């Protein structure tokens, strides 16, 4: 029963993600071993959406390291534990809480020793900028702890590149690229843990910079992004985009003019807004102002649609059934759902 609930929730979320996004492209699944311990190490841009995209398509059932401040109350702790989420404590949670991470690292080592999968973000924070940030030592500390407790275990590191077209907009497109497996044990030097940590971070960072768009820190970020947008590059193809970044390095552009979409797109957006007017109003007037950061925009919007859209359809069905008939109401709902899917996949920007 427990496994059934997990599978059902996973199916609902996966269906929601594919309905919410205009396009989801997944590549590199063949690099993920099915019978070895795995640590997924993605770049981090769009808060919880990043986690959900990997969890529903990685062909493993990973544990997740999650910020500790969400583990509030017995109910939430029970739910998060069921979905294999582990709290990680940060300085902002209070210096006295950091000692709790020692037990969490031991739990992670135990998980990996059993041949299971673990997902954590090596950048240790999220940001919409199209560059790979400096990696923290958190994931290397877990690996070192695992090798100290379980010397015979090898762990396959899978860097994951998340590539959004526009992570804070709707509908968006995303490509998830799984990199080639890296043997963590091959880089473990028992008598030089600093070298071990450095080598692990360098190997993961190098792959991440190939699996996602990476604008080097020494470049003018805004100018380069503006130029890439002007050239209408395909951000779902990081290899192509990174080649263009190298090509454009010496090209200076202050233009902020982006490629214009066809005027008909704005008309379609208006039709979409009319068909979903109650939800559009609720989102813009109620929930959207509560989004704390742009990085959370996609997460909040997806959760809102996943939870509220079925309720909207139910209320619409009841209302139309009372005014017209059940047959007409059902037909109207089917047409509305199909139209919305068409808008998301084809009709909207």
From TrEMBL:
One GO molecular-function entry: acyltransferase activity
Top-level taxon: Bacteria
Domain (Phospholipid/glycerol acyltransferase) ranges: 38-165
Organism: Maribacter dokdonensis
Alphabetical keyword list: Acyltransferase, Membrane, Transferase, Transmembrane, Transmembrane helix
Presence of keyword Transmembrane: yes
Protein name: Acyltransferase
Entries under Pfam families matching the protein: Acyltransferase
Membrane-crossing residue ranges in chain numbering: 299-318, 324-344
Record CDD domains: LPLAT_AAK14816-like
């Amino acid at each position: 029963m427990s496994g059934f609930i997990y599978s059902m929730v996973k199916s609902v979320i996966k269906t929601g993600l594919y309905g919410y996004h205009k396009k989801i492209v997944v590549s590199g699944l063949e690099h993920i071993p099915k019978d070895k311990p795995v640590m997924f190490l993605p770049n981090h841009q769009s808060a919880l959406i990043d986690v959900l995209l990997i969890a529903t398509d990685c062909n493993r059932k990973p544990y997740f390291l999650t910020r500790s401040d969400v583990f509030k109350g017995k109910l939430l702790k029970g739910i998060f534990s069921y979905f294999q989420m582990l709290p990680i404590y940060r300085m902002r949670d209070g210096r006295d809480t950091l000692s709790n991470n020692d037990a969490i690292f031991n739990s992670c080592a135990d998980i990996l020793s059993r041949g299971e999968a673990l997902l954590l973000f090596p950048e240790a924070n999220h940001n919409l900028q199209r560059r790979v940030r400096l990696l923290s030592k958190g994931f290397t500390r877990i690996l070192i702890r695992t090798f100290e407790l379980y010397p015979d275990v090898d762990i396959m590191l899978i860097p994951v590149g998340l590539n959004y077209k526009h992570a804070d907009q709707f509908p968006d497109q995303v490509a998830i690229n799984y990199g080639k497996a890296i043997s963590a044990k091959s880089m473990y030097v028992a008598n030089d843990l600093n070298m071990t940590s450095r080598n692990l971070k360098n190997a993961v960072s190098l792959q991440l910079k190939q699996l996602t768009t990476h604008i080097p820190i020494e470049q003018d970020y805004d100018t380069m992004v503006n130029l890439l947008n002007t050239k209408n590059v395909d951000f779902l193809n990081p290899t192509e985009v990174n080649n263009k970044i190298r090509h454009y390095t010496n090209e200076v552009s202050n233009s902020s003019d982006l490629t214009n979409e066809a005027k008909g797109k704005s008309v379609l957006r208006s039709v979409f807004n009319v068909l979903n007017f109650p939800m559009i109003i609720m989102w813009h007037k109620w929930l959207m102002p509560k989004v704390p950061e742009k990085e959370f925009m996609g997460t909040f919007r997806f959760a809102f649609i996943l939870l509220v859209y079925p309720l909207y359809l139910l209320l619409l069905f009841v209302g139309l059934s009372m005014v017209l008939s059940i047959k007409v109401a059902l037909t109207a709902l089917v047409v509305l759902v199909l139209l919305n899917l068409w808008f998301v996949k084809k009709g909207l920007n």
